[in-house]
């Protein structure tokens, strides 16, 4: 079993002890990702903007692994306030229009109060289906 770790360079990865993504046996496991803009280390206020930022970070990790949002088979959304969820629907619908992964939305507190959404995905590498 070969494991490859992917980092976004977020200071949280080293401080907390995790990888943004782990590639193993044809699968890509992307850690729960919040809406930080890692270039500026800022968190936008609107949940839709946080959702878009999280998906952009996830897409970049998937690309580094050799996959894309179209390869996602499972997604989990975690929101402290379930009333924020409908505002995210257009963003996630556009992101997963092709993949249409199995999905779950949970309501739970997140690490910091400014965090309004966290997204975790599992993807299958396109080349893994050819084995």
From TrEMBL:
InterPro entries, A to Z: RutC-like_sf, YjgF/YER057c/UK114
TM helices/strands, residue ranges: none
Name listed for the protein in its UniProt record: Enamine deaminase RidA (YjgF/YER057c/UK114 family)
Taxonomic lineage from the root: Bacteria, Pseudomonadati, Pseudomonadota, Alphaproteobacteria, Rhodobacterales
């Amino acid at each position: 079993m070969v494991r490859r770790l992917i980092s976004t360079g977020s200071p949280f990865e080293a401080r907390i002890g995790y990888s943004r993504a782990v590639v193993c046996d044809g699968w890509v496991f992307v850690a729960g990702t919040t809406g930080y803009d890692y270039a500026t280390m800022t968190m936008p206020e609107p949940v839709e903007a946080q959702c878009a930022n999280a998906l952009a970070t996830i897409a970049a990790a998937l690309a580094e692994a050799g996959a894309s949002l179209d390869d996602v088979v499972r997604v989990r959304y975690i929101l402290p306030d379930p009333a924020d969820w409908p505002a995210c629907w257009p963003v996630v619908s556009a992101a997963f229009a092709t993949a249409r992964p199995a999905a779950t939305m949970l309501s739970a507190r997140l690490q910091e109060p400014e965090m309004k959404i966290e997204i975790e995905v599992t993807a299958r590498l396109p080349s893994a289906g050819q084995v």
